[in-house]
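seq/struct pair 1
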Amino acid sequence: GFLDHGAVGNEEWNPWEGDEKNEQVASQQRYEANLKMIKNARSHLEQTSLRVQIWGKAAIGLYLWQHIFGGQLQPADVTAQWREGSQKARKTYFSFITGPSVVPGYFSVEAENVVLVLNGREKAKITYATQWLHYAETLIQTRKIQHVALVLLGNEQCNNEWIQPYLKRHGGFVNLLFVTYDYALVNEEDIFQWPLGVATYRNFPVVEPSWSMLHDPRSYLCNFLGTVYKNSSRETLMEILKQDGLDKLCWIAPREQWQPQETNESFKNYQDALLQSDLTLCPVGINTECYRIYEACSYGSLPVIEDVMTPGDCGNSSMYHSAPLQLLKTVGAPFIFIKNWKELPAVLEKEKKMSLQEKIQRRKKLIEWYQNFKAWMRQKFINTLENSFLPSDKG
């Protein structure tokens, strides 16, 4: 890909000017010059290339690898003790390992640069995460590795104070932090917001858009399958849906208690609901951002998002004022944002009047946006690592 096609063919031999021999010499010189250019480019690539090993110790690592990077894992069996994959991107060679057998000290560290994927959502998870951080720190101290970046499933109220002492800026060893939710300390320098993504811990798949997914009429205006917490806006949503008989037009399946493990049947129902509805209702839970948003995008069902800040320490960063969902809003997510579920009947009224053709266009736009979003996140992630880990050419 380094040849300049213009330079190769633009001095073609002309039988009426000069003789053939001169042209052969010139051609040979151009050929050698191009070879030299390719060689230099290759050696430059080899000099600057980066090797990064990603240790996936939280389910969010699968979203990073399979959904954002589009990477494969061997073996394909999700219950395997050890799974791995690799990929070359820009100047970087990435390898990814995950599974219960990936334990500190019991696998080979194959790169000087490491991305650790950890869960810091609650106390027990943080205890486990810190063991991994201490292991990485030991490897830094003994010069086995040079750089560490962290992808963190943050706390839903953004109580992530425990991680701060590990960051370079506070005297720690972690160069970069990619963290979920609208964490107030996101600064786009060494702390970046990362998407929550789909529920890979429930084996939500990478969905390839099909012709029928884009073009077929869908049976329901909207769907909501989920837990209805007492005194939450979800109760309000249920009341509003019942009022005008709107629940008859939508696939609504509320439950009173959250279930971490899906049955095969409940998971199939959920996927069918996304596939069969034009809109997916996303009422706030503990945080405004939820897996449902990304899962709906996967199936071309437009998220209708309750755009309110949940209690806790999220939002209000010095950088961003349009929280919640700052990351998604920054990249122009084509969702419907509402402040109160009382706005829903008007949304559904408008929905009834839409033609299939308009809905098809909207689905295409949504799926294309989501694919571009994942590609953009991948690019941003790689650029950030390369800018931070590669020696700079300055001086």
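seq/struct pair 2
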Amino acid sequence: ISGYTLTVQASDNGNPPRLNTTTVNIDVSDVNDNPPVFSKGNYSVIIQENKPIGFSVLQLVVTDKDSSHNGPPFLFTILSGNEENTFQINQQGALTTTAALNRKVRDHYFLHVKVADNGKPPLSSLTYIDIRVIEESIYSPAILPLEIFITAFGEEYSGGVIGKIHATDQDVYDTLTYSLDPKMESLFSVSSTGGKLIAHKRLDVGQYLLNVTVTDGKFTTAADITVHIRQITQDLLNHSIAIRFANLAPEEFIGDYWRNFQRALRNILGVRRNDIQIVSLQPSDPPSNLDVLLNIEKSGSSQHPMKILLHKINSSVPDLEEILGVRIIDVFHKLCAGLDCPLKFCEEKVTVDENIMSTHSTARLSFVTPRHHRTAVCLC
């Protein structure tokens, strides 16, 4: 408690007694009784040789429970392990190099570091920093091209996370940094450390080509990212086909089955592969199963007769299951089984919810689709 306010009353012994009150303010000042504390008792750092002088090795974080005048500014001192003056620490706790590191000359440093606070008398704490010097990068990072398909109900896509760029490096301790062609930064961005790709604002339907680079600090590699934004209409939804797969996650379907499934359907239906498009992907009930909503177009964007498509797909389910190695539970067009309604009067209503967009991404493919709902009504 940093302060007290007391009300004191004095009264005499008269009859009747006379009295008066006054206020006493008591401020409790801070005594420097807490030393500054490092965020860790000891630190381990791995650094590649031949980094430029002034390279940032580590940022030390220190806290002090005392009030501000007994805390910062802190004084950092390297007590031992820095006999060649290879490192320095500024008063913000940043450890940097003052000389080039060569692992053949010395590959290990063990620094004993003290921090003192600004109190009178000052209090201090100690920590140890174990620094290992390894060889500099010898491998370029590898980055995979990514193709992204976005389903938009309308003429624009409102934006959000649309995929993740995958890059690897055979140098075990390399840190990869991602960047995007500045020309596209008004429309897209990429997180520098994680490779997460984000669409910024309302994007028109169409195709976008992005150039993404990844660097390990020495080598830089680039890859092309293609973003397709496709418009769906209510008429397209009305002619869509839903297929339910057993025990399949969306990412598993995209990464392991989608291209083969698309190719197999192309052969069965006699259409081009790109005429078979995913409208929506979502876990079904139970969630271990997967509902895939498809649109199948003719050249010229007209629709195939639904009865013919459904008949061909349903009659080919055993072949599809054998090709894919996954079980197909059902192929839906009309949800009429539970209705007391003649089939010709049963109408299915398919809607999508643009407020619930899901991104399912693998190393090479990403689909951003709205949640869909299918209901049946009797018109008779």
